[in-house]
UniProtKB/TrEMBL annotation:
One of its GO terms (molecular function) is GTP binding. Residues 2-98 form the G domain. NCBIfam families: GTP_HydF, small_GTP. GO terms for biological process: tRNA methylation; tRNA wobble uridine modification. InterPro entries: FeFe-hyd_GTPase_HydF, GTP-bd, HydF_dimer, HydF_tetramer, P-loop_NTPase, Small_GTP-bd. One of its GO terms (cellular component) is cytoplasm. SUPFAM superfamilies: P-loop containing nucleoside triphosphate hydrolases (SSF52540). This is Small GTP-binding protein. It comes from the Bacteria. Residues 253-369 form the Hydrogen maturase F tetramerization domain. Residues 152-249 form the Hydrogen maturase F dimerization domain. It comes from Proteiniphilum saccharofermentans.
Amino acid sequence: MLTGQDISIVSNFPGTTTDPVKKSVEIFNIGPAILIDTAGIDDLGEIGNKKIRKSQEVIRKVDCAILLIAGNQFGDYEVQLIEQFKKNEVPYLFAHNKNDIDKIAAITVTAIKQHSNAEIIDFSTINPADKDRLITALKRIIPATAFQRSSLIGDLVRPKDVVLLVTPIDSEAPEGRMILPQNQTIRDALDNQCVTVVVRESEIPDFLQLGIKPALAITDSSVFGIVAEALPEEIPLTSFSILFARMKGNFTAFLEGTPHISRLKDGDHILLLESCTHQTSCDDIGRVKIPKLLQQFTGKRLHFTVVSGLSELPSNIRNFSLVIQCGGCMITRKQLLNRLHPFIQQGVPVTNYGMVLAYIHGIFRRATKMLEKEPVNLPLFPDN
């Protein structure tokens, strides 16, 4: 209903939905969203248990949830989901579907209210007006942090400032387009009424010859060393990855965790967390460049484990001496914070691709000092 398209295979038979089905959609006054349709948690048997685990994994990753019921069916399975929502601090609402056939009964409302104060929407997918009612209800429960409209650079620049963006074109660059962090940063600079100049690292000298002094320079972390050497020290410099770390991650934990690079020892295990799935190349920043540079910088023999996407984390998290998270441009703030929280809780240092590269090139303070004056994000968890 929310997409206006047939995305999932549906039927009257239980167990039709297996793996979670995702669909990207733009919802007015909410913005870009990913809708995830999960299997129910009332399946039996080995396959049923796998479906249930997949559905429960989704709960830990979403910003809000719709608990869909129909035919006035509300029982133990729904109560279990309510408990999962509460445990994972996921705001939610109830949607009683097919009210054109069977409207929600007072006894069902009473049963729900015994376990939850969440809003209940009685609707039908064949009634267009009900779609607007459901979206309005969603807007009431989505937490402000889920919108992720906090500006990347709004507190660092003023209107009419010149912002220099350095974007290398190498084997990691997608064909014919720019990567998401670059696109989002350009848009954020335009939203803040800045003049944007985009160059490759090799064109920095040509730009400087124009006599224009940028208020802020932002580079791809992979060319931090080249850009830092090319730009005068008085020009504030950071990276796309570090800006995303501030907007989405536990920035304080990143700042504290990065210097642990200098404390690494022979045989230490490093965990690299990639939030997206992509084809790797000889220039891959996470799988190739960072491991090579870390071992050169520390002079230590290090072991690296890579987890891509939102795959399950290793169970022995305390065996890692350092966790290095990518920029996280493809996941939500909550997903990134939840992913790092177990390590922070266990005292394992965490950092970020951009911060690691800044530290290795000796410009960590330069790349982060302008961001420390007013951190964008407060920790999601009280004990952080």
